[in-house]
Amino acid sequence: MCGRYASYLPPEANRALFRATNPLVNIAPNWNVAPTQPAMVIRRHPETGERHLDVLRWGLIPHFIKDLKAARKPINARSETAATSGMFRGALASRRCLVPVDAFYEWRAMSDGKQPYAIARRDGAPLAMAGLWEGWRAPDGAIVRTFAILTTAANATMATLHERMPVILEPDDWTAWLEAEGNAAALMLPALDDVLHLWPVSRAVNSVRNNGAELLDRIDDPHAPPPSDAPGGENPA
Prior knowledge:
Blueprint: E1 5-7, H1 11-17, E2 30-33, E3 38-44, E4 51-58, E5 76-78, H2 89-94, E6 96-101, E7 103-110, E8 113-121, E9 127-137, E10 143-153, E11 164-166, H3 171-178, H4 184-187, E12 196-200
């Protein structure tokens, strides 16, 4: 799954990377994006076909919802069932987006609590996560635009932390995803095992109140074996 991520690349850089054409959005860097918060997404304009970089709220509100307070607002959608789910199938068919992410977080259970890890591309490029978006009309006529991130089975890298992972699309697949071309299932696959790397980070990321570049700093891996010269470690002759 994906429940927290970092998005610090400036809007102008994301606009250039994804070749968006609309006016520049105004959003600050966020090293701890959490559900209900605004975040950047890339969408295809239905009339012009141009890519737009927009700011939407994380947590999907389907357009048919009547009672907003009682409605589920999922942050993730399972790729295996999205096409048959009343919550997601309309968006999968015609309202797809890309979610620019610089790194995301996942947690591993330990005896003293959950240890967070950061995950990013090995090549240093931003991640383009597959997303779905919706527009919900409030009683006053205002449109609330929201999104969710699609997930799939974990690859070998992510399986050390969790059984699920976000769907990560390579640049060659961006157009097909945004234009809803071909078989969506063929695009919603785990990333290849050599695409990502992960490292342990401070538990400060657990609190959404903490937000800064230091959240991505590597810490000593609590799961690593002791060095050979440490007490209890092997010290071969």
